[in-house]
């Protein structure tokens, strides 16, 4: 039986460690998703992201995602890292992820490529829909906006 590694971190994410964790002599494929902070959205210049998380519930939801993956596909190991940023002011406790840095890394190994590819796709979509981690985009003009995940099941649309 494969292993899962779930981590919510306040430091930069290490892609190599994710690959190392999921590597297995019985797997012929490792599929990955790396979500990066980009420098633009809707014509505005993004300078950084801020994250807030309900960490204990987020970890439970990420473990459920791993369980569902194992029910649907034949996979070996699953690794999901999500970054909530760095503490840049001890008093204010602002958590940031700068442009070009990863906020999420998902790696899945499997005997054949199709299973790991589908599992990674499922993992990121499920993460966006059910994991209580919220993102705020900070723009160069000084304004900001909390981003709503369109996939989120608790979002109410009118």
From TrEMBL:
Its main location: cytoplasm. The keyword Cytoplasm applies. One of its GO terms (cellular component) is molybdopterin synthase complex. Keywords: Cytoplasm, Molybdenum cofactor biosynthesis, Transferase. Substrate binds at residues 112-113, 128, 135-137. InterPro entries: MoaE_sf, MOCS2B_euk, Mopterin_biosynth_MoaE. One of its GO terms (molecular function) is molybdopterin synthase activity. Pathway: Cofactor biosynthesis; molybdopterin biosynthesis. Gene3D superfamilies: Molybdopterin biosynthesis MoaE subunit (3.90.1170.40). It is found in: Cytoplasm. It catalyses: 2 [molybdopterin-synthase sulfur-carrier protein]-C-terminal-Gly-aminoethanethioate + cyclic pyranopterin phosphate + H2O = molybdopterin + 2 [molybdopterin-synthase sulfur-carrier protein]-C-terminal Gly-Gly + 2 H(+). It comes from the Eukaryota. One of its GO terms (biological process) is Mo-molybdopterin cofactor biosynthetic process. Its EC number is 2.8.1.12. Heterotetramer; composed of 2 small (MOCS2A) and 2 large (MOCS2B) subunits. Catalytic subunit of the molybdopterin synthase complex, a complex that catalyzes the conversion of precursor Z into molybdopterin. Acts by mediating the incorporation of 2 sulfur atoms from thiocarboxylated MOCS2A into precursor Z to generate a dithiolene group. Belongs to the MoaE family. MOCS2B subfamily. HAMAP family: MOC2B. This is Molybdopterin synthase catalytic subunit.
């Amino acid at each position: 039986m494969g292993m899962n590694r779930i981590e919510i971190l306040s430091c930069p994410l290490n892609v190599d460690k994710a690959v190392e964790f999921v590597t297995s002599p019985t797997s012929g494929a490792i599929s990955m998703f790396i979500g990066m902070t980009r420098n633009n959205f809707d014509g505005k210049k993004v300078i950084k992201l801020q994250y807030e998380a309900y960490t204990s519930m987020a970890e439970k939801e990420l473990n459920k995602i791993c369980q569902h993956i194992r029910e649907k596909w034949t996979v070996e190991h699953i690794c999901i890292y999500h970054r909530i940023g760095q503490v840049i002011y001890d008093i204010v406790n602002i958590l940031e992820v700068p442009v070009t840095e990863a906020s999420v890394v998902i790696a899945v190994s499997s005997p054949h490529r199709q299973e790991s590819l589908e599992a990674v796709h499922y993992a990121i979509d499920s993460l966006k829909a059910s994991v209580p981690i919220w993102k705020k985009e900070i723009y160069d003009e000084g304004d900001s906006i909390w981003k709503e995940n369109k996939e989120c099941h608790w979002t109410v649309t009118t």
